[in-house]
């Protein structure tokens, strides 16, 4: 079954990681995969462009179907393999509503995180402004406080006690926050969520290889 699937991915990319976690959760090991290097611009190779004309990772093919957006790929896999592996969409309307809300709401968190982390890379040094950095910090801080509040009200996962599609899609972003130095003491609920899920088999099996061999960063330590 998984032999008909191909994933081209980059280490540390939350969208790539989501699909990897999803494949593990649905017991779809043994797929064709290739780890590419962002710094060497391998994501702009013809091999990637043939699957993903945007020249971005992930590039994912399931049989004849190409799904390069991580949300699309995860929804597709859950629907195609409902009876295999772990069921990731709850039956309860309450849990389902909360799951959908959090999984789409995290896109805002991801954007605010990237705005801050990538500002120095995107903007030439002579054009950088302290006010822009401060604005990005304040926006991310306000967003993190929202998520801290959400996680204070849940049992351990985002939509209750059960691990759902929301956790597949949100956890890589939360892990990214702590990889870049987010303070556990300042955000205890986020830290608890992170530590309670990081040893889940699907997450442990797909942990970004570059994170294991390179030191963490401190970009977010003052947030």
UniProtKB/TrEMBL annotation:
GO cellular component: mitochondrion
GO BP terms, alphabetized: glutathione metabolic process; L-phenylalanine catabolic process
Gene3D superfamilies xref list: 1.20.1050.10, Glutaredoxin (3.40.30.10)
Entries under CDD domains matching the protein: GST_N_family
Occurrences of domain GST C-terminal (ranges): 92-216
A GO MF term: glutathione transferase activity
SUPFAM superfamilies linked to this entry: GST C-terminal domain-like (SSF47616), Thioredoxin-like (SSF52833)
Annotated GST N-terminal domain residues: 3-85
Similarity-based family: Belongs to the GST superfamily.
The protein's name in its UniProt record: Glutathione S-transferase rho
Species of origin: Amphiprion percula (Orange clownfish)
